[in-house]
Amino acid sequence: MTTVTTLTGVPGILRPFKEFLKEKGLPEGSQIVYYGCAGTCTPFVELLAYATRDLNLTHLFVPLFDEANAHVLKSVPAVGMQAKEGAAVKPALIVLMGGLAMPGVPVTIEEVKAVVSKHGVPVAGVCFMSMFEKSGWLLEISFELLIDAKIDPVTITRKAK
After folding, report:
1. What InterPro entries does the record tag this protein with (predicted)?
2. What CA–CA distance (Å, rounded) separates 135 from 4?
């Protein structure tokens, strides 16, 4: 993989993702299927889906690799994208979320490779703090797009007691 650019902030995550989807030229209704950890990855999946909502694609969230528990992301007025009813998984693109690669998450690289192989579609990855690199996934998974964001430093401010 070759570094294309370095951006900052939330738009630095969302805009390149949207551009990537536009470049793919996927037909309307095509499924973008995000695999990640419930709770921690879900808000980022909702942001990615929200940023690309005008592309008329279908967004699904799959907790870990439990495709039987897949949920469609729908736009909720005055809220944003939210996980709703279930759906059959037929991805045009797989998006692996970095939470899957974190220590202690009950996922193996063999499971990841099996899902990627099963569907035979392009794979993108979104992670923080070089999680895919640290876990060795970059040696095992062929990402067409990798967005690796840094949350460093984190500044905490409090009123003096």
Report:
1. UCP004962 (IPR009183)
2. 22
Taking the alpha carbons of 60, 150, 122, 137 in that order, is the dihedral positive or negative? negative
In this structure, the number of other CB atoms found within 10 A of the CB of residue 110 comes to 9
Handedness of CA 126, 98, 79, 60 (dihedral sign): positive
Where are the domains positioned within the chain? 14-149
In single-letter form, the type of residue at position 83 comes to A
H-run or E-run covering 8: none
Q: Is 79 exposed, middle or buried (0-12, 13-18, 19+ CB in 10 A)?
A: exposed
Topology, domain 14-149: Rossmann fold (3.40.50)
**pLDDT tens digit string along 116-161?**
999 999 999 999 999 999 999 999 999 999 999 998 888 999 999 8
CA distances, 42 to each of 14, 23, 123, 138, 159 (Å): 15, 24, 18, 22, 31
pTM of this prediction exceeds 0.90? yes
Give the number of other Cβ atoms within 10 Å of residue 144's Cβ: 15
